[in-house]
Amino acid sequence: MRFLFRLSFLFCFSAAVLLGQSPDAPLPFQLKLIGPNIWAAIDDAKGDAGANAGFVVGDDGVAVIDTFENEAAAKALLGQIHSFTHLPIKFVINTHYHLDHVAGNRAFAKHGAVIVGHHSVRAWIHTENLKFFGEKIKPEEKAMVQNLLAPEVTYDTGVTLFLGTRRIEVTYMQGHTGGDSVVSIPDTGIVFCGDLFWRHTLPNLIDATTSTWISTLSEFTEEKADTLPNSALPRAVIFVPGHGDVGNAEDVQEFQAYLAWLRAAVKKGVDANKKGDALVAAVMPELTNFSRIFRARIFWMRARNWKAPSAFQSLRKSEALCWSLSVPAAPRITVHF
């Protein structure tokens, strides 16, 4: 037994060294076992990983969901996976194209993983990610975006993946970017939501269509018998968000209520012909009241206390938060406050 323990330690140490990570280095995420051989990797409080990820171990391989904002975090996750299993990483699933969910793709591909994503991820990964750096994007930032590894296998409405007998359903849904996917493990009731669900964290809505997003969130929680509409998802009980800690159906409904409220608040200002700073001034008091009434700790965070992914930081200055909403009479409104 002592020999096996030492051998296991040596394997973990060797994997960390090979991946360029000190075995004593703190992880940029917290690993949580949320189901049988299913882990969620939750970004740390400083935002060092940039977003959440996760992985599923099957009979003959591993599937990884999203790959963080940077290669260092991706390599740290690789090391953790290798410490749990000797099985190969077969698939990496990108839930959408945003930089903070795809920047580690190449690190996994070097270990033989096939990158899977909606066709929009492949189409947008090298173009739309540029906007997060602003108009004064630096050459090295542009080169970094161009070096992102796009999905090698794409789909339109979804795809079914197998790890031996373990089935994984990837389903296309809309709202956050227009090219989002959720990943479910049907035998467990666990759903990795990507950025279609944010728990206790302000959402990035720069590409969002909030009306569609609100409808999509209903599909997460309004089951018909044993499945969700238009998918093979079982009755889900655990929801892993793109940002924030692991949640349940009530958390998803609270986030949906927030989007519905915010949409209505902004529309009210637009209907009163308010624009720019005037629109911000009209919405801010209602946002403050909403926060106080509707669990302020969940949805209202000062920007200086919430570290946005570095790719988004050029869009936020001081206490500013950039929210883009699709509302009637204003196809795209950017609200800064």
TL;DR of this structure?
The chain is of the alpha/beta class and 337 residues long.
List its traits.
five-stranded mixed beta sheet; globular; Metallo-beta-lactamase, Chain A; alpha/beta; 2 domains
Task: Tell me what the structure shows.
The protein is an alpha/beta fold and 337 residues long. It has two domains: 2-261, Ribonuclease Z/Hydroxyacylglutathione hydrolase-like (Metallo-beta-lactamase, Chain A, 4-Layer Sandwich); 262-336, no CATH class. Helices cover 33% and strands 25% of the residues. It has ten helices and 14 strands. It has helices at residues 2-18, 71-84, 99-102, 105-109, 119-124, 139-146, 210-221, 249-271, 276-293, 296-299; strands at residues 29-35, 38-43, 53-57, 62-65, 89-94, 114-118, 153-155, 158-163, 166-173, 180-185, 190-198, 238-243, 322-327, 330-336. The strands form three sheets. It has a seven-stranded mixed β-sheet with strand order 1-2-3-4-5-6-7. It has a five-stranded mixed β-sheet with strand order 8-9-10-11-12, covered by helices on one side. Strand 11, helix 7 (210-221) and strand 12 (238-243) form a beta-alpha-beta unit. It is globular and about 60 Å long. The N and C termini lie far apart (59 Å). 41% of the residues are buried. Residues 1-20, 223-230 and 295-337 have low confidence and may be disordered.
